[in-house]
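sanity check this:
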Amino acid sequence: MSTKDPEANVATKKRSRSGKTRRALAPESKSLASNVREIFIQRTHAWAQNLAEVVPTEVLAEALERPSARSSILHVLSTVPSDAEKSEVEVLRERALERAILVREQLREEAGGFHPTGWVADRLGVTRQSVDRYRKEGALLAVETPQGYQFPACQFTTDGIVPGLKDVLDAMQAGSFWETLAGLITPSPLLGGKSVIEALQTAQAPEERARVAEVARAYSEE
């Protein structure tokens, strides 16, 4: 008598029909998917709000009589001309927002991801209060999120903080978080094609780190 698990047989058949097994999303892909969902939600929410402001009240009332949200939307779309839905300025504004979100996600990935305060404290072997002090003093770059401060991973080595980082951050302090992060990880011809953070990681002497800081300052001023 066969001892094979029936559920396992079903799973095997499903895999053979599809030709391959679905793979779980990598952490970066999950993050990107989250941002895509955020863009979709923002776009549709703004679209619905704008549409509600230009659609005649009687049309909205008729839409609300429909049995579902989908049928309500279809009723409005079948009644209102498409050019009344959104102005050109609003479209351009939304596209700019979408590009900004995607650019930020790319910067996040190139920086090696972001880590919370607790991770940084464990990495450096210090308290969370010390990490917060480093951030306030400009020794570490961080962005505030609803989940707390997040620190780009590129700032850290296996031994601690990248040497010379504070001087570089001081040189770039005029920029926003995202501008500063871009300045840290964007390759520079002045550094032989290396990024500022890569140049700091390979610098052996204080003079070399000072040179990197000057390049960072020039990037910030541009």
Remarks:
- Confidence is low (pLDDT under 50) at residues 1-28.
- The first helix runs from residue 6 to 18.
